[in-house]
Amino acid sequence: MPSVNSVLELFGAIVLIAIEPALGSALAQTAAPVTKSISSAPAPASRPVSTLPGREADGRVEHIAFHLATAGRAHCPALASDLGLVLQHLSQFELADRAGMIAGQSLDRGPGVIAVVPGGPAALAGIRPGDVLLAVDGLEIPRETALAAPFDAARAHARADTVRDLLAQKNTPFPVLLLRNGIVSTVPVMPRLACPSYVHLARSDQRNAYADGRHVFITTGLLSTVRKDDELAFIIAHEMAHNILHHAVVMRGGEVRHGLGRTLGRSGRIIRETEREADALGGNLMLDAGFDPVAGAAILGRLGNGDLGIELFAAHDSAGKRIDAMRALVEARHR
To answer: Distance between CA atoms of 297 and 139, rounded to whole angstroms?
Structure first.
């Protein structure tokens, strides 16, 4: 798989909204302008997600993202269909790895399923990890091209988003043609409406989470610090909220400075306000999905001020203030 630098380029991350300040990191170097950041229903069970071997972390992220996006749809003026599955594409692999992915998983035929959320539309339709999607609602998914060409971020970006967009457009039952163990079959899928935000797990030791207006990324380094599902839900919901609130547009605007001095003056006030808004909406998304925002925000105390350790560059309120804000949000919901 490509490096996290390639992943950022792959998804065209213009705005980086990270939990941990890391101005000199490879993540920040690939995205500019850069900004740093970071119940009413029963909580979804912390059960294993159906995945290909070695992809359990991808399944865990998708499991929580799916519940946040579907339970919180009342907060989103525009909705998209969500099937509750994670796909991989041949174009996302380095050239040397593609022959093995073709031989082992037939990724030259179409996108492969690596994780399925229990109880989600894909799972209910009988789609399993290891399946390869061939066609959606009678429309054949174009096969990968330029198989002998080196990894290209733009091509991989276009491929991943094209397939996700195709699935997201279906809001009524539709058939999916799939390949499993050499046998082609058709299954009917009932999509579920959700807040549109593509959530991905990026391989990196850096502890970061970021949003670009359309996608959300969680690094494996940050995931390794998570102790419970509430904490992972807090991270995903916060970044998802940035996308729902169109904060990428704000950060691209002329009123926000970019660079080391961006947290000073008017720019700092604007950035901090977007972070407070994302915390508030993210907390509501968590409550709708049955997660505990106060327990989730506990991860902030362990992240501290990151690599720099200089409060001057912090775009967020202190961890204590953010936890207090979550506590007030929960109390207000239950009055």
So the answer is: 43
Distance of alpha carbon 8 from alpha carbon 11, whole angstroms: 5
What count of residues does the chain have?
A: 335
Q: Which residues, listed in sequence order, are joined to residue 139 by a DSSP beta bridge?
A: 136
Phi/psi-derived region of residue 201, left when phi > 0, alpha when psi is between -120 and 50, beta in every other case: beta
What span, in angstroms and rounded, lies between the C-alpha atoms of 192 and 170? 9
Residue range 226-266, pLDDT digits in tens: 999 999 999 999 999 999 999 888 777 656 555 444 455 66
Could you read off the pLDDT of 178-204 as tens digits, one per residue? Answer: 999 999 999 999 999 999 989 999 888
36 Cβ contact partners less than 8 Å away, ≥ 6 residues apart: 16, 17, 18, 20, 21, 22, 23, 263, 313, 314, 315
Rounded to 5 degrees, φ, ψ at 77 are -65, -30
Domains in the chain (CATH in brackets) are 4-41+204-333 (no CATH), 80-193 (2.30.42.10)
Secondary structure class of 114 (helix, strand, coil) = strand
